[in-house]
Task: structure prediction
Amino acid sequence: MSHSEKLGTWAVIDIETTGVDPSYDQIIDVGFLQFKGLKCINRFSSLVHFDGELSSFIQKLTGIKKEMLLKAPPFKEVEVDLSELEGNFLIAHNSDFEMGFLKKSFDRFNQKSSSESGRETFVDSLYFLAILFPEYSSLKLDFFIREWGIRSEEVHRGFEDALDLLKVILTAAYLTKTDRHFFPFLSMQIQEKKLQDFFLFHFLFLSTSELKACGEEIDFDVEQTASLAREKLSLRRRFLTQKNRESKEVVAKTHLLEFNGESIKKIFNDEAHLKQKFPSYKTRPAQVEMALKVGQSFKNNVHSMIQAPTGTGKTFSYLIPAVLFSLKEGKQVLISTGTKTLQRQAFEKDVPKVLEFLNLSESDLKVALLVGSQNHFCEALFRKDEADQYLDFTSLQNSMIGDHFALNFARLYFEVLFFYNQKSAYNDMLTREDLSFVMKKKIPELALKEKDYRAHFRSCQGHKCPYKNDCSYFEGLKEAKSADIILGNHSLMFNFPRAINRPMHVIVDEAHKIEEEATSQFKLELMEADFLHTLTQLQNMQGVGPLFYLLAKMEKEVGASTPKIKFLREEVLKVFQILSDHYAPLKETLALYFKKSPRYSEQFRNELPFPHKKTHQDTWALKILNHFESIHFVLKTFVQLLEKETMSLDFEEMKSEEMILAQTRFESFYTQLAEQVASLDKLFDEDQNYSRGLTFLESEGFSARSTPIDIGMIVKQELLDPSMSVVYTSATLANENGDTGARGMEWMLGHTYLPPEKRFKQGLFLKSTYDYKNKTKVYLCDDTLPIYQQDFVPSVFGKIKKLIYKLNGRSLLLFSAKSRFEIARELLLKEFDGKIPLFVQGMGQDVVESFKQSSSGILIGMESFGEGIDIPGDKLQFVFIDKIPDLRQDLVINDRRQFFEAQLGNEFTDYYLGHRTRSLHQKLGRLLRTETDYGGVIIVDERIKKWKGNTMEKMMNLMRPYDIHRATLDEAIAGVEEFILKENGA
Result:
């Protein structure tokens, strides 16, 4: 049977609904295209009658109006056409959604039908696209149709989206079919993993002429679209040719730039010359001052803090002295960015501009992009699992093609990922951060194995590993060793590869994020999912099986290792049994313990202090403590046993590939166990610098964590002490001149604990480039309803909508809770749709870019959406914020506040308010992005009426250089309107 015949009768289907809950919401639009083989035999599109309230969001998203649905046929009539799909393969994008809404209908069809065609089978195109394009971070249909030029944006209508999905599938299949490297590999793997019956893979085995013929059925030129898509893939450096493994010629650095203050000044002050390359360049004193301070820090081996307000030109201010220092002194510099996105931006945009700025070629300066060791995948671990058939996945039931779909899909996904890395240059290799979030949700096995296959310095075999030439971790080490500048992020900085030394000179951008990142890196946590995975590995001998193999292979006499292996096997089973006996009652007791708490929540993660015999007398708390103590003792004893039994093995003598893989697998298992023991050790030791807690959420399970309280001391010990010079910089370290709020940052960054000779006497707080006093009008209002009242958003919106009309949009509205955001979204759509363009977070791929390109518009999003948006010019003139940002009140934050107050000073101003105002600064920073920008801000927060003492005065001081005016909401609206219209010249 040909592959076109194997397709049988199938359809591509899409629905639109009133919401996402099948038990409550209803279908309002259905569209499908039905095929027999390659021939289209049916096209269907219909709205569905609905006389309920249709949200403005759905109307905006789909273009479907209420009056259209009133005239549409009832669902019973539409079901008659849907029944034609009985027994078909039904392709949908994220098919769980369609299946949830249509299952009842197909259940009825099946009960009434006498046909032998069988049940329908839903087929999810997400799986297909995830396998074919692992480098794509987004698997949304909207992304593919935009990326490949199929349509300008997703229509969100049943038939049109079904049609576009089919175009994407045909294009994806054509691209893969014509890839002479990838297709032979993938087709072989599909056969090996027994996935040839996954319906969408049949498209890969159609000929190109058959794919084009299918496209012609829908008037679609597959070949032309694939050609355009291939260009996009080439721009993304998709593997299409073999990776060039030839060593690069080292070019001697010949340049005349010096590393000194005069050279730095000359570079920045040569405005006439620089304008030839950068027409908008303008010498900024603050930029020169910062560059000189960075140079002084490196030259004198001291640590420094620099607040560089927006508009300083911060990135060039630290990159240029860093480049000069590295080239002249022959020393590496690490640049640590706040996020991986900023890290990539620095590599692809900022560094090339700096080279042009300094008139250097790429051969003059080697820059390496590096991620932390545990962000890489280890192919050796995967290969060992494959070879020994140790893959032990759960939740294998899948109605699409049988019980083993999840198992085999996960195996195929990793095969494709490692193939991609074999063909890609280092900077394009895929790491753990590239693993699709949505696929980890749909296939839990991927999330499970993501940790299992992570590279780790302990298990890495380095030059002995047979997969070293295609390893992103190993390649990264080679790149970093020979680099002048290493571009990393805060996670890497605290988790630097053990195989190489972290550079002694470090620049930390976005330094205000250090507390959060250091907390994440240095907390010790035992999670239920990890514990369960350990139980599985013990039960199936996954982790210790390779050790048995090594003991047998290295025995000096035949059979000498048998008693030891038998003993270890028995011990493993004992450990498994004891841990299993504790797990079930521990989970049950934890659930009861948390649920009796008066603040228990089913939606959000709950936290309670870890029980201690001296402070907890509750029976359930003591039961929990006893279970954890027993688990700790058993795991620790077992780890000590493994360590003792492996001491006799000479790992240096392991030469064969099989032994190296076995060692890698065992070391990985041992490392996981050791990390769990370390987490439990910290729970029970007497270190007063740790906050110990339990968390619980029904859908995620429990965790036990220990988090450092004095984070500043940890940062000093882990970052400052081993380094010669660390330069911290951010736009928001304290207030304008550093006289308020800086003390909290000095503590978080470890400066508080430095001896005088290792730091400048005080931080450098650069003057603002922008005129905040005269170019902004910021109001704080407290005459609104309490924020948690249902009428809060409508009451505020009823007033500010008049201002938005007066400004013809040009507004950004930020909300701190999803519920308030959704209410505001509805009100905005009802009021402004068709009058002023509205751009909503989550509605479309590039809402910010679309907003920037509009002549006027309204942009609305969640609180975090307001950080990082860059909208220069008059497109944005008004920002609304629904409350002063809060500081989360978890255990470690409360413990830090107490510690700060007891040991360092006024925690309320320097820590608590400092955190909140830095977050507010980040949101206000969206307003002025150039020297000519101007605008107004309204912040509403009824809670400030209860503030006591001089709290408001402290906050106002922390918010400098902004002048914040207290006013009623009406006064604020009038004030913003008057200010902007005056600036506009109206």
Notes: The radius of gyration is 31 Å. The chain is about 50% helix and 10% strand. The longest helix spans residues 562-595.
